[in-house]
UniProtKB/TrEMBL annotation:
Molecular function GO labels: molecular adaptor activity
Keywords assigned: Repeat, TPR repeat
PANTHER family (UniProt xref): LD24721P
Organism, as annotated: Sphaeroforma arctica JP610
Coiled-coil region: none
Biological processes, Gene Ontology terms: post-translational protein targeting to endoplasmic reticulum membrane
The protein, known as: Uncharacterized protein
Origin organism lineage: Eukaryota, Ichthyosporea, Ichthyophonida, Sphaeroforma
Length: 134
């Protein structure tokens, strides 16, 4: 059970505290609250890839695919080996109808982690979905 935290208690929070609270909100499907908390974490530490990839996941849940893709692009610049960034960028790009970009990102994710079953599943879904665009 999540504990309610007052604003004065949050004054002592660091970026990781906001990320942890955002993760709780995400699991509760309170995606807008999660986005706000990830944004606060990013404001405190804009070099942490997980803050961007996690916020991208929350953006996708509220169908803000451009914002999700933008966060993934930042994460990829920060860490070119971030599998989650490429995978989520692929999903966001596909949701925006950017088929070539989705393909490129899924390909990079697979190249980085060929044995990842989640990526393989996304790639299979990608090839099913692109039939809608051709």
């Amino acid at each position: 059970m999540a504990v309610s935290v007052s604003d004065s208690e949050r004054d002592d929070w660091g970026a990781e505290d906001y990320k942890a609270a955002a993760n709780v909100e995400y699991k509760k499907q309170s995606y807008l609250k999660a986005i706000d908390m990830y944004s606060t974490a990013i404001g405190m530490d804009s070099s942490n890839v997980a803050y961007f990839t996690n916020r991208a996941a929350a953006y996708m849940m509220v169908k803000q695919f451009e914002n999700a893709l933008s966060d993934c692009e930042v994460a990829m610049r920060l860490d070119p080996s971030s599998v989650k960034a490429y995978q989520r960028a692929g999903k966001a790009a596909l949701s925006l109808g950017k088929v070539n970009l989705a393909h490129d990102n899924f390909s990079k994710a697979l190249k980085l982690d060929a044995k990842n079953q989640n990526i393989s599943k996304d790639v299979c879904l990608f090839y099913c979905d692109i039939s809608c665009y051709v």
